[in-house]
Amino acid sequence: MKPLVAGCALVAAVAAVAAVAAAPSHAAPARQRVAVTLTSRTVGLSTVNVLAGTIVFAVVNHSKVARAFAIAGRRTPQIPAGRSATLTVMLGTGFHEYTSVGRDRRGRIAGLVHALAPCTEPVATTVKVEMTQSPGSIAFSRTTIPCGTVTFVITNAGTLVDKLRVYADYRGEIGASPQIAPGQTATLVIRFLAKGIASYVSDDFPPPELEDGSMSGEQGQLAIG
Fold first, then answer.
1. b/e code 44-58 from CB counts within 10 Å (16+ = b)
2. How many domains does one find in the chain?
3. Are 164 and 127 contacting, i.e. CB atoms less than 8 angstroms apart?
4. Is there a domain that residue 192 lies in?
5. What range defines the domain where residue 65 resides?
6. Region 54-69 average pLDDT
7. CA-CA distances (angstroms) from residue 161 to 24, 100, 155?
8. Domain co-membership, 186 together with 106
9. Helices (H), the chain
10. pTM metric for this prediction
């Protein structure tokens, strides 16, 4: 009977490994790198919008004196003029203040980095859009959309050539449809890697003022979750 038991154990082990391999992976985003340039009056960042997680700040001091860079309770040593250093930190979602100071904490410069919630369970979604160049002129089949790859199917039901632009805070989450003639349909595909808010606007915005003093509603926001 022992060989049978051993065989059953082997089958169970193989099944367990297969189950793990088949399980969906929602790994945290890879380390992100942000270039930081220090001068005596400014701190320049390659981006101020990142995904929450591990961030590597690559700092170069272009000022004429030693300066340090700090964020989220961590800081570099004083970096001599013309030299560089790196600072690795974990950022949770939300806004984080960064600072740069010279020796004796002189010449303090501050700003904000926005850490966005990463999309850990992406979903492919199709959203229908109708544009009419009239009051409330852009209608979406849904305005709360799961993060992931979104295909906007856009129909121009109006009388003017138009196009749709969509953009969000995280890099790469931006796109525009081709020019769409009246009665025609086009698609726009954007991959949303972060949760948050995306804005949209018609190509001919701002529209003329209506008789009641309002605008024709050719811009708005979508919730990406």
1. ebeeebbbbbebebe
2. 2
3. no
4. yes
5. 32-116
6. 97
7. 43, 49, 11
8. no
9. 2-22
10. 0.76
